[in-house]
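3.2 Worked example (two chains)
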Amino acid sequence: MDATHYHISSFFLIGIPGLQDFHCWIGIPVFLLFVLTLLGNSVIIVTVKLEPGLQQPMYFFLCMLAVNDMALASSTAPKMLGILWFDAHRIDFNICLTQLYFIYTFCIIESAILVAMAFDRCVAICIPLCYTTILSIPMVVKIGLVDIIRAIFMVLPHPVFISKLQYYTKYVINDAYCEHMAVRLARTSIFIYRVYGISVALSVMILDLGPIATSYIKILQAVFRLSSQSTISKSMGTCATHVCTILVCYIPALFSFLIHCIVKKESRSMHIIFATLYLLVPPTVNILAYGIKTKHIGNQVVGPFFSNKKISISNKKISIYIYIF
């Protein structure tokens, strides 16, 4: 018997299926990660703005990453906390599509920023004399605008297509935020949508991971042509933080994708937890990575928690000297 259907006006987000009794406790780490993301990235942005020594393209890209991380976390964490702590499960249809749109837009922007940061390191190490000429302030602004425009137009067909579908009377979504769940409730065929979604994912991987890999191949070739061991160590040290950021960004996404493909529907809670970690953990790790690597940022991020302590950070190691009066 065919199910009756109509264009529903709202969805009911369950949260994490099978773990409803633990929602209150799960909300605590979600809240802590969200707050740390907002505060830490805000400190990074303010520090780069106020410190003359950080007025460089590398740190401008870092500020772009910080803003995007805050936007990405803000697009998911508030609604998740509403579900986990206040049983605010309902979400308007249009708001659901808006959340879906911004999540994927910010993810694509983040990937593009990582490409820009890899290009920045490649120019700085391979052709340092041309660094300021190639990566001028206008060029940095243009790169940022291109990244945003690309993401906007790549993701825009998703909510437009979903809004045109017919839906079953079933409106319950087994998730803590709007992903592709709404599409699964559709009555009409979503084959074209699936093809487009896979095409976008593959194009982002090819367009972004390809240049990143190429940049670091050139960096390694340039570094190992150097004769001084100290120069090699210093050059590799400048890339270590960015490599860490790339791994933290792409590895959770890969695990989330694999789990989504191989787990059974009964174990959907595992996929939701990994997807949540993918959205909330990388912004936090970025703060720690750049805070430790960069002296000015490290002092601003860690300083408030260690009064009357002097933190000395070098490229090779971190030395912490504590003076208690």
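3.2.1 Second chain
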Amino acid sequence: MSNSSSLNEFLLLPLAGTREQQLLHFSLFLGIYMAALLGNSLIITAVACDHRLHTPMYFFLLNLSILDLGSISTTVPKSMANSLWNTRSISYSGCVAQVFLVIFLFSAEYYLLTVMAYDRYVAICKPLHYGTIMDSRACVRMAAAAWASGFIYAVLHTGNTFSIPLCQGNAVDQFFCEIPQIFKLSCTDSYLREVGLIVVSVFLVFWCFIFIVLTYVQIFTAVLRIPSEQGWHKAFSMCLPHLAVVSLFVVTLTFAYLKPPSLSSPTLDLVVSVLYSMVPPTLNPLIYNMRNKELQEAVRKLFQLVQVQQP
């Protein structure tokens, strides 16, 4: 294979050697995928159907659940299918699509989490102006900006990755197509390209992270001024789920892409990729539902409606 144009397919990392292990891998991934599918679908349906949840916070949460569903659906079903059919292959176009969608959905989610931090800031620090600042048009524009930014970011990264010639085989040491693993197949030294991608990524991640941190500093400062314990509880119930989701998302992704080379190993890379690609989409619905009585009530009514409609 002289260059990337001659590649028809890539070979993904096999997660199991024996047939029994392949079926175990399929069952484990299926359980995680179904949990993510159920949790995020419940939030999407509950927010869409319950008019009491037609507020900026739940509008952004609906977008977050859509992104979570998309991100886990981009990687996990293909890996399950490969284990079930005892194959490792993914087409060249499928690999390009997977790289694009992973970057698009995860970057859009990070931008959306930044927007959600601003929403919480306005709700707590400027409650009298909340309806004016976070009106429906502003919310749609913010969500659209997060999606559009993720799209542009993904186009640039995907185009940069697959513009390099690939001649070091076609085996990707990961259970899905991942940029660092694609770079390892390059014919030329891709160090400068990789450094350039890392610098751009770190700048964007750092800017959003600093914005979120400064936002929460002001939020907690305002919360400490609330005289009533009930006000504290309400404020923290709004902020802590978002803060937990941001922490889970940032920590797993940061460790995956910015860990020192000395810590890198095929096993660790695989574990970290599973953590950042599967754990946040699965746990996010649980985190938001755990302390949110309005959302719990909407989900409960949804289940009751389903039971009533059953013959």
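3.3 Remarks
The two ends are 60 Å apart (CA to CA).
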